[in-house]
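Hi support team,

I submitted a single chain yesterday and got back a structure, but I'm not sure I'm reading the token output correctly. Could someone confirm the output below corresponds to the sequence I sent? I've pasted both exactly as they appear in my results page.

Thanks,
R.
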Amino acid sequence: MRIALINDYQDVARTAADWASLPAGTEVVAFHDHVEDEDTLVERLRDFDVVVGVRQRVQFRRSLLEQLPNLKLLMNGGGPAIDGAAARDLGITLCTLGGTNTATAEQTWALLLALARNVVQEDRAMREGRWQTTMGVGLERSTLGVVGLGNLGGQVAAYGKAFGMNVIAWSRSLTPERAEEKGATLVTKDELFERSDFISVHVSLSDASRGLIGARELGLMKPTAYIVNTSRGPIIEEAALLAALKERRIAGAGLDVFDVEPIPHDHPFLALDNVVLAPHLGFVTKQSYGIFYRHAVENIAAYIAGAPIRVIAPPPVA
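Hi R., thanks for writing in. Yes, this is the structure output for that exact sequence:
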């Protein structure tokens, strides 16, 4: 059996789990770059029986899956990146992979605090021989708006309460009772954008959430307010966010996710001084990777034994 580990940027996948526990003759190959081009992906992956992906980096569309005749088992931490119907039709088993529940919430706060206290600007200034060039803003008694109050949003809300912030929240399905359980107050979408000093986005990417935050919502924000996105780039309309940042209609943004990843070298975000950027690190911790790749080994062993685990249910036949 040949196993491909894709998007292993840090070259850690092979040491993050006990691949040697798999049957003799198993070959594990790690790829450390990101490839979008379908022909290149086919050439790279056509001889592999198993592919282990990281979150939603590669889109496994039907056209790609149909050109991978040896593929039997496909694992990815983000289901929407895989055409489940195509996998079902082609007899490919899909399995999910876990990670820690706190990693992305912690990354959210790393970005939020960096924005609030101008950490990036002051680091650069010190290296240039300057001292105390900015003045940050405190979090206590400010308002945190959480868009999406599920597991991650709930953790971010709890951290906000620990900082002494007033936490408000909105999502299409959120109830007052659920918000109260998480230490937040349910408000309307418009009210959240109008009142918040900091906004954090925690909804899954879907057709319904794509472009959920656009020029209208950003236009409701205070000029002193910040927005942080550690969910998925397309949830915020990129052009609208760029315009708001360039024109200083909002104070800044902390972004861990982008429409295209890795972000192009000439992307306009890279030229802005009111943005803190991270290369989709929300999930990237030693603890998360340890769980993620351990699950991959377990999934492969179970598949070989004829009793697959963590199987993603295929979509029903239309």
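A quick pointer for reading it: The chain has two domains: 2-100+285-304, 103-277. Let us know if anything else looks off.

Best,
Support desk
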